[in-house]
Amino acid sequence: MTAFNAVRFRVRPGQDQKFIDAHKNISWPGLRHAYMIKTSDHTYCIIAEWPDMETLANARPNMIATLDSFRDTLEDLGGGLGDRPSFRSACPDV
């Protein structure tokens, strides 16, 4: 069953290009496609499509390595969310 994850980011002023550049050549195993959406000034959402939840879970170390490459560009979102709350869900085939 196809799976998706969505992650919200708030980038520190002046750091947008470094954030964007960190995602230009991602190579997470099993990733079908990733979309970056600018939702407002310095705020982005990345939505990624995976063949299934297991493939998504197995790619977490690669996603964390990518995050570590630009973590210094992010603001803390507060409320215990850290610098990037994420959501995962399987999508039934229709």
What can be said about this structure in brief?
The protein has 94 residues and is α+β, with helices and mostly antiparallel strands. 24% of the residues lie in helices and 31% in strands.
Structure notes:
With 94 residues, the protein is an alpha+beta fold. The chain has a single domain, classed as Alpha-Beta Plaits (2-Layer Sandwich). It has 3 helices and 4 strands. Strand 2 and strand 3 (43-50) form a beta hairpin. The chain is globular, with a radius of gyration of 13 Å.
Content of β-strand: 25-35%
* Number of helical regions: 3
**Radius of gyration, whole Å:** 13 Å
The number of domains: 1
- The low-confidence parts are none
Largest sheet: 4 strands, antiparallel
Return the structural class. Answer: alpha+beta
Q: For the largest beta sheet, what order do the strands appear in spatially?
A: 2-3-1-4
Given the C-alpha coordinates, what overall shape results?
A: globular
Kindly report how far apart the N and C termini lie.
Answer: 10 Å
SSE string, helices as H and strands as E: EHEEHHE
Number-wise, the strands total 4
Estimate the helix proportion, in percent: 10-25%
Mind telling me which CATH architecture this is? Answer: 2-Layer Sandwich
Mean pLDDT: 85
- The CATH class name reads Alpha Beta
CATH fold-level name: Alpha-Beta Plaits
